[in-house]
Design goal:
Strands 2-1-3-4-5-10 form a six-stranded parallel β-sheet, sandwiched between helices. It has a two-stranded parallel sheet with strand order 6-9. The radius of gyration is 19 Å and the shape is globular. The two termini are 38 Å apart. The protein is of the alpha/beta class and 313 residues long. The protein has a domain at 7-169 and 211-241 and 276-291: NAD(P)-binding Rossmann-like Domain (Rossmann fold, 3-Layer(aba) Sandwich), CATH 3.40.50. Helices cover 43% and strands 14% of the residues. Bound molecules: guanosine-5'-diphosphate. Guanosine-5'-diphosphate (GDP) binds next to α6 and β7. Guanosine-5'-diphosphate is lined by residues 69-70, 110, 134, 166, 179-181, 184-185, 202-204, 208, 210, 245, 268-271.
Length: 313
C-alpha cells in the first residue's frame, strides 16, 4: 500500500478496527477513512453505496461486525445473522463496484465444524455441522468468505479473508451479558477484589479449550497479509497454542491479584469443546505472533484500569 493511499477501516471503534488504525498510523499511513455507526449504517445498502462512490477508498479492512460472546450470539441470533450478512454484502459488493484495489475481510474461528479435527486447518471449512450457540454468526462469516472468493473468481477482485482466533485487548466489550470470556473475567475478578467478594462466578465447566490472540498482534498480521498475501485461500490467524478456560481463569485471577474462589456455574453453556487454529499457512508466509498470553493479559488489565469508567459505564 502506498503511504498516501486512501484506506477505509470499517469498524474502527471496535477492538479490531481500533488496533488496525493504531497499526496503520504507526506505519505512517495518514489518509485513513472512518465512519462511526451513527454516521454510516453499514446495513443500509443505499448509504454504503453512496459512501463508496464518494470516498473511493483504495484499500479496505473489513473489521465491522456485530460481535459478542456465547450468550449474546445465542440470544440475538437473528441480528447476528442479518446484521453481519448486510454489512459484508454491502461493503464487499461496493468495494467491487468502485474498483477497490484490495480488501481484507475478517471472519472468525467459529466458521469451523464443531467436531472438526484439531488443530483447525483452513480446508475443514464446510466439512461438518457448526456449533449451535454461534451458528448464525458463523453462517454470516462463511458467506463473507464466499463473497470474497466469488468476486475474485468471477471478476478478479483482490479480496482476501483472514480468520482470527479468539481475540482480546484494548477497547474490548466489558458488558457481562455480551462480552467474551477474557474481558468478562478481568472485570469480574477486578470488581470482586475491590469489593472484597469471597467468590467469582465463572461459566461452564472450565474444561473447554480456547486460543487467545492479542488485538495488536492481529492488526500486525492483517497489515502483513494486506502487504504480502494475494491468494484466494483464506488464512487462519492465531498463536497455534490453547489453554483450558480453567487455566486462563486462574491466570486472570493472578494478574488481577484476587484471592477468593472460583465458582463454576454449569447452568451456563460451555460452547464448542475446542477451536485451536492450525497456523501453518500463516507461518509459511513468514508471520508469527509476539505477545504471549500472560503479558497480553497484564497489559489488557492495565488498559482496563486506565479506562474502567468508559468500559463499564
Ligand atoms: P466462545 O469462544 O464463542 O465460546 O465465547 P466466549 O468467549 O463467550 O466463551 C468461551 C468459554 O468461556 C465458554 O466455555 C464460556 O462458558 C466460558 N466462560 C466462563 N466464564 C465466562 C464469562 O463470564 N463470560 C463468558 N462470555 N464466557 C465465560
Amino acid at each position: 500500500m502506498e503511504k498516501e493511499a486512501r484506506i477505509y477501516v470499517a469498524g474502527h471503534r471496535g477492538m479490531v478496527g481500533s488496533a488496525l488504525v493504531r497499526k496503520l498510523q504507526s506505519e505512517g499511513f495518514t489518509n485513513l477513512v472512518t465512519r462511526t455507526s451513527a454516521e454510516l449504517d453499514l446495513r443500509n445498502q443505499a448509504a454504503v453505496a453512496n459512501f463508496f462512490a464518494q470516498e473511493q477508498p483504495h484499500y479496505v479492512f473489513l473489521a465491522a461486525a456485530k460481535v459478542g460472546g456465547i450468550l449474546a450470539n445465542n440470544t440475538y441470533r437473528a441480528e447476528f445473522l442479518y446484521d453481519n450478512l448486510m454489512i459484508e454484502a454491502n461493503i464487499i459488493h461496493n468495494a467491487h463496484q468502485t474498483g477497490v484495489k484490495k480488501l481484507l475481510f475478517l471472519g472468525s474461528s467459529c466458521i469451523y465444524p464443531k467436531m472438526a479435527d484439531q488443530p483447525l486447518k483452513e480446508e475443514y471449512l464446510l466439512s461438518g455441522f457448526l456449533e449451535p450457540t454461534n451458528e448464525p454468526y458463523a453462517i454470516a462469516k462463511i458467506a463473507g468468505i464466499k463473497l470474497c472468493e466469488s468476486y475474485r473468481s468471477q471478476y478478479g477482485s483482490n479480496f482476501i479473508s483472514a480468520m482470527p482466533t479468539n481475540l482480546y485487548g484494548p477497547n474490548d466489550n466489558y458488558d457481562l451479558n455480551s462480552s467474551h470470556v477474557l474481558p468478562a473475567l478481568i472485570r469480574k475478578f477486578h470488581e470482586a477484589k475491590v469489593n472484597d467478594q469471597p467468590t467469582v462466578e465463572v461459566w461452564g465447566t472450565g474444561s473447554p479449550r480456547r486460543e487467545f490472540l492479542h488485538a495488536d498482534d492481529l492488526a500486525d498480521a492483517c497489515f502483513f497479509l494486506m502487504e504480502h498475501y494475494n491468494d484466494d485461500l483464506f488464512v487462519n490467524i492465531g498463536t497455534g497454542e490453547d489453554v483450558t478456560i480453567r487455566e486462563v481463569a486462574e491466570m486472570i485471577r493472578d494478574v488481577v491479584g484476587y484471592e477468593g474462589e472460583l465458582r463454576w456455574n454449569t447452568d451456563k453453556p460451555d460452547g464448542t469443546p475446542r477451536k485451536l487454529m492450525d497456523v501453518s499457512r500463516l507461518h509459511a508466509q513468514g508471520w508469527h505472533h509476539t505477545t504471549d498470553l500472560r503479558r497480553g493479559l497484564e497489559n489488557t488489565y492495565q488498559d482496563f484500569l486506565e479506562n474502567e469508567v468508559m468500559y463499564v459505564e
